[in-house]
Amino acid sequence: MHKRKPHLRGRGPDLPILDQVTQYDFAPGYVVFTLPAPKRLRVKVGGEVIADTTAGLILFESDHLPVYYFPRASVRMDLLAPGDRTSHCPYKGEASYYSLKGHDDTYRNIMWSYEDPIEACPAIGDYVSFLWHEVDHWFEEDEEIFVHARDPYRRIDCLPSSRRVQVFLNGEEIANSIRGVFLFETGLPTRYYLPPEDIQTQFLTPSESFSECPYKGRAAYHHAHVGGETFNDIVWHYPAPIEGASRIKGLHCFASEFVDRILVDGIEQPRPVTAFSHGYS
Predict the structure, then answer these.
(1) Is residue 147 packed enough to be buried (19+ CB in 10 Å), middle (13-18) or exposed (0-12)?
(2) Percent residues over pLDDT 90 in the chain
(3) CA separation for the pair 143, 121 (Å, rounded)
(4) pLDDT at res. 175
(5) Distance of alpha carbon 254 from alpha carbon 273, whole angstroms
(6) How far apart are CA 14 and CA 10, in angstroms?
(7) Residue of 23, 135, 198, 244 with fewest CB within 10 Å of its CB?
């Protein structure tokens, strides 16, 4: 049975009923569907806006992040030429690629199109999409966005809490706070953001790592050195989060997947299994 892996339910709409859909006979539980994307969407490449629409689609696919698709008529096809790549998807069909003219290999195969999608696939034959990190800028209305399309099924709530949070790592209580902000994000475990004053920061050293989130912004990381062991990138914080996550500014969060344990009001929290825990090194 090709059902969504539990640790990937944060990708795509977190709607359990979709796990039971039979859209593809060869993969029960696997779904691909689209919804209108009423925001103004734009893509900028090489100094040019090459796609601009208010009639886009957002495509959801099991175990994948959401993807914006643009009507072909909203794309500057005069600036693009057929690329030298194709790909095959068993759920959508054969994709052809396009490159930006006059830029040698700089913007090669940046756009794709399923011009003749398979029967079970939504009607995306007249739409195109872009490789997110191969173009320069993405915009929703006038706000630049990062990493991937924002999922309308995902919500973030950052709530101050006086519940006591204790974090233990390698046998050491490394944090103890009643001044945290609990971050609830659809499909993901609760994250506990704590003020540095309530953390034994002598165990932490800044990391050069960073990550980006379309819902929170750009995160910086710290290593922890406890009991003679080093735990790489086990703490993160958002120095300048986007508006919807402003309450976590300057607060630190420990990766629940890798600390010994986290207690909330004395109750040990289950260790979550996420895509992060599968990719951590």
Answers:
(1) middle
(2) 75
(3) 31
(4) 98
(5) 15
(6) 6
(7) 244
Distance CA 175, CA 251 (A): 12
Residue with token string 């977190």:
14
Q: What tokens appear for 28 in the block?
A: 């029960």
Distance in angstroms (rounded) separating the CA atoms of residues 82 and 265: 59
Find the range with the poorest average confidence among 64-78, 96-110, 218-232.
Answer: 96-110
Radius of gyration over alpha carbons of the chain, in Å? Answer: 22
Cβ–Cβ contacts within 10 Å for residue 214, how many? 18
Q: pLDDT per residue over 145-159, tens digit each?
A: 988 998 888 889 999
Place of tokens 């999922």: 151
* Whether the Cβ atoms of residue 6 and residue 273 lie closer than 8 Å to each other: yes
CA distances from 89 to 24, 92, 96, 103, 250 (A): 13, 5, 11, 28, 42
Which residues, listed in sequence order, are joined to residue 51 by a DSSP beta bridge? 43, 75
Give the pLDDT score at 280: 40
